[in-house]
Amino acid sequence: MAVYTALLHYPVYNKSRKIVATSLTTLDIHDIARASRTFDVKRYYVVQPIENHLWLARKLLSFWQSGFGREYNPKRWEALKIVEAVPYFEDALKDIEERDGVRPKVVVTSARRYENSVSYEYLKKKIEVGEDVIICFGTGWGLTEEFISSADYILEPIEGPTDYNHLSVRSAAAIILDRLLGR
Questions:
Q1: Are 123 and 176 contacting, i.e. CB atoms less than 8 angstroms apart?
Q2: Considering only CA atoms, which of 81, 129, 133 is closest in space to residue 102?
Q3: Which region holds residue 119: left if phi is over 0, alpha if psi is between -120 and 50, else beta?
Q4: What is the pLDDT, as a whole number, of residue 71?
Q5: Burial code of 109-125, b = ≥16 C-beta within 10 A, e = fewer?
Q6: What is the predicted pLDDT for the residue at 67?
Q7: Backbone dihedral region of 151: left (phi > 0), alpha (psi from -120 to 50 degrees) or beta?
Q8: pLDDT at residue 135, rounded to an integer
Q9: Which run of H or of E encompasses 27?
Q10: What is the pLDDT of residue 1?
Q11: Integer angstrom CA distances of residue 74 from 36, 84, 121, 167
């Protein structure tokens, strides 16, 4: 069983529901890497098609994975060593197939509820019996409907006691990983 995570900056919506590529946020790289490493995620992919943002992600990762940062802060290296920056989601799937010989089931997350959403309990059981999955988190105003409909599983949203539902992707990733992989 292997669990992977992916933070997609494309294809996502902006607030006008136009399909865009969003800007890179370096805090997302760090914080989701730390959550992914805490919950034994095999690899975390930052999907960023904007060339200079992809360059920035790779530069940041180089600093922490093999540069001065690795020696300066080994705890940060421990989290960031599992991160790969790729331009498109298909590149992440190809990397997993080449490295690990598996094609994981695609799990998408959303703040919206879908009729065919699966529960955390259902997905947790699938993972426990050995199903390989890649959990996809969207930036901006969420993953596109086309991307969501192409997934193997749509995970139910995180819901609080109010109608307000706009968590940061870093917070959502930590909550979801805890629910699926926590003790």
A1: no
A2: 133
A3: beta
A4: 86
A5: bbeeeeeeebeeeebee
A6: 76
A7: beta
A8: 98
A9: helix 26-38
A10: 83
A11: 16, 18, 34, 29
pTM equals 0.96
Place of tokens 């294809």: 11
Amino acid at 75: K
Domains of the chain as residue ranges with CATH: 3-181 (3.40.1280.10)
- Quick one: tokens of 163? 């109608």
Rounded to an integer, what distance in angstroms lies between the CA atom of residue 96 and that of residue 81? 15
Task: Going from the first residue of the chain to its last (183 residues), give the mean pLDDT of each consecutive group of 10, the final group possibly shorter.
Answer: 96 98 96 98 98 97 88 89 98 98 98 96 98 98 98 97 93 98 95
Residue 68: its pLDDT value, please?
Answer: 85
The candidate with the shortest Cα–Cα distance to 3, out of 110, 119, 135, 103, is 135
Give CA–CA dist 109/32, Å, rounded. 14
169-181 vs 120-128: helix axis angle to the nearest 10? 60
d(CA 51, CA 29): 17
CB atoms under 10 Å from CB of 40, counted, come to 11
The residue type at 175: I
Q: What single letter denotes the amino acid at residue 102?
A: V
CA-closest candidate to residue 17, choices 106, 159, 138: 138
